[in-house]
Structures are given as structure tokens and as C-alpha cells.
Amino acid sequence: MSPLTAAIGRYRHTEALFDDALLRIEPFPAISRAFAPMVRTQRFDVSEMAIATVLMARAAGSDLVLLPVVLAARVQNGALLRRAGDAFGPGELRGRRIGVRAYSQTTGLWLRGILEEEHRLRAEEARWVTFEDAHVAAYRDPPWAERAPAGSDMLTMLRGGALDAAIFGNDVPADANLQTVFPDPDAAGRAFTARHGFVPVNHMVVVRAEVARRQGVVRALLARFRAAGNAFPSGRAALDPAVALALRYAAGQGLLARPLTLDDVWAGLPAGCEEAHAQP
After folding, report:
1. Measured distance CA(95)–CA(82) in Å, rounded
2. Which of 140, 199, 210, 263 lies 20 to 30 A from 250 at CA?
3. Which domain covers residue 14, as residue numbers?
4. Are the beta carbons of 245 and 196 closer than 8 angstroms?
């Protein structure tokens, strides 16, 4: 069997996959740059994928199949920054200009959900300033999002006052002139986990539908992800709560072209491959 083409970030828990004969992993300096070609042209057999992109793609009619594997999950609260001299917290963002790489970015999805759930700030009550399109080509930002001027840099805009706050995803800048909007982001993250029972999921894994129809291949993939040392929760039963909440947040924020159920999200996953310990 020819190796499966793949786009997977290089982490401690994926390192072993880069020497696995089952996969031919293409290098990406930032794995997020693989998401658009996977969604738009199904460029790979297997790909890491942001959960927001998975949900949006499914709602737009994509037949990519989600596997019950998490490659990235983290507390999100520390990614929302403001200038150090501005004294406002997460409950005081109504009407403010908040930058985010793309309105569809998964960190933004989680933080908007948290802000509504904990601080009663609906997505449409802030001004979301974006810098690039969604990975799903057909998606258009909602009316409460606006595009920054061409060539703008989010960090520069925040430092200069053109933005009141900004979401930086995994690449939070180390800058003494910036502070987190949440006064104690770690405590806020622990409170979220205590309330919901999980850490927010950022990236999972998808495969093309024709790959998913080969049950033995899917089982082999799941076994390899686990054997590589992946300690994140796996299996549909363990991940359903996180996927369900992401789905609810996405629907409320105008990210989905149509309503989805959990069964819609997992459609195409072969029977016997929903468990955490699927074996080839």
C-alpha cells in the first residue's frame, strides 16, 4: 500500500509518525497553512485540522471525515491581550475593537463563547477586526466583523491603539507593554475546565472520505496516534462534550452555513473506530 499523504504538526506526541511507513508527511512551517488546501481541494489523505474549520466545512457540505483524535488543546484565556495601561477586563469589551487573525479562528471561537457564557457579551456586541479569510472558501464574515486595512499588522494595531484588544492564538507575543484581558487567565481556564469537564480542543484529525471507507486503514491510523504518545483524550465518547460545545458556540457566532448535530459532525467514521483504543 502506498503511504498516505499527510499534513501534521511536529509535536512530541506526533514525532514518531514522521518515521512511520504508513504516512508521507509534508512539511509546513505553520500547520494552520495546511487547513485551507485540505478543506478546499482535499490535498492530503490525512490532515490535522482546527475544530472550527471542521465544523464549518461540514456545515458547508464537505465529506471530510473527523477522527476522534486531538492533536492540540489548551486553555484559551491567556490569548486575549490589551495594552498594559488600559484598565478593563473581560466584562468590559462591549463595543470595543477586538482583533483576530480570522473570525473563524478556533481560539476566537472558544473565547467568544467564554465571553458570552461568563460575561454576557454576545459576538455581535463587539467589533471584530479580521486580517484574513476563513479556510472554508464559501464562508463570509458576519456583519459585526470588519477587515483591517490591507497590509495591516494586528500586533502593531494593538500597540498603537487602533485595536482595544486582540486574540493571538498560540503565538502570544512576549511584550511587557501588553497584558491579558483576563486578570488571572490560568484561574479562568481552570474554572472553565471544572465547569465543562475538558480543556478546549483546538486541533483534531480528518481524512478524505475514500480513506475513511477503508476501516483497516483508519484503525491503523488511530493506533499509531495513540502509540506515538498522544495523551489527549480520544474516542468519540470522551470528545463529544467538547465537540458539542464548540458546535453550540459556532452556531451562535454565525460560523455555520446550516445547523449540525453531533452525528452530522462524525458522519463517515467507520463502525468500530469510535473508541479510544481502536486497534488495526
Report:
1. 15
2. 210
3. 4-74+200-265
4. yes
